Amino acid sequence: MPKTIRNKYYKYLTFNRLMEAHKKARRGKGYREEIIKFNLKQEEYIMYLLERLRNKSYKHGGYKVFYITEPKPRKIERSRYIDRIVHTFYVENFLKPYFMPCFINTSYACIPCRGMHKACLDVQKAMKHCKNIWGEYYILKMDVTKYFQNIDKDILLEILKKKIKDKDLLWLTKEIIYSNKGKKSLPIGNYTSQMFANIYLNELDQYVKKELGIKYYFRYMDDSVLFVRGKEEAKCYLEKIKEFIYSKLELTLNKKTQIFKSKQGVNFCGYKINEYRLKIRDKGKRKLKKKIVKLKKLIKEGELTSDDAKKYLVGHLGYIKIADTYKLENKLFYRENK
To answer: Residue 284's pLDDT is what?
Structure first.
């Protein structure tokens, strides 16, 4: 794969690729009214979108704003469906093929065949190795302050320009990046935002691995950990990382950032991890218990079938399957049957 993107925009801008993006964007959401209406005349709409992208008359629409409380309070900005097709086309044809190969092996968010489970298992494997070679060691746990809200759009564009040399693709890039208000903040909910966020902090990843030479470093979006032999070494790296992300990315670390001894284990991706045990954090347990109680109540009242409840829990069961949860599973799922 070439290091830079040149003369690819019109080559990849075809009816078939936009149709593929439409099929991917609608996956699992075909019941929504806007998608049902789009499907009725999908060929016409795709041709319309193709023409607008070709002559650069396409304009990204606005956002429907709503708020969620789980896993934490967040503002979600939902774009029009036709814009989501453009996002998918852009990510699948340009960001994934050209930027993802540049990511370090220990970056996990939104990357195929990685994810939270692999991140946790790799962290645990590294902890075992560090214990074997060092005995006691230190953990530096870092968390970026309000990450998506503080991503600077101008800095992001300059990072993308290092690889994107196609002026037509840069036009579309700007149309997407500056589609919501403000100098900072990417809209949570956009497919593009996930990749942009990874590309933005890849700058830190490269600095940590190449400039600082830290071997045991792991990142899941804005949540990262690294292992070093001594406390002073950890302090030194922390100051250098703070300086780098502030001066280069205009980011800061929040109060969750701390240094502690390895015997305390580390909270990462919703799990409490040490060298020999991987547990769901108490916060995660409470949320899961609350959901189980709610589902049981709905089943008892006849508002939900057992099969529907199982479908709803698929993701949550995947979340707990790699952890030591024998007692928890018995408590949640079997207690009422005894």
So the answer is: 56
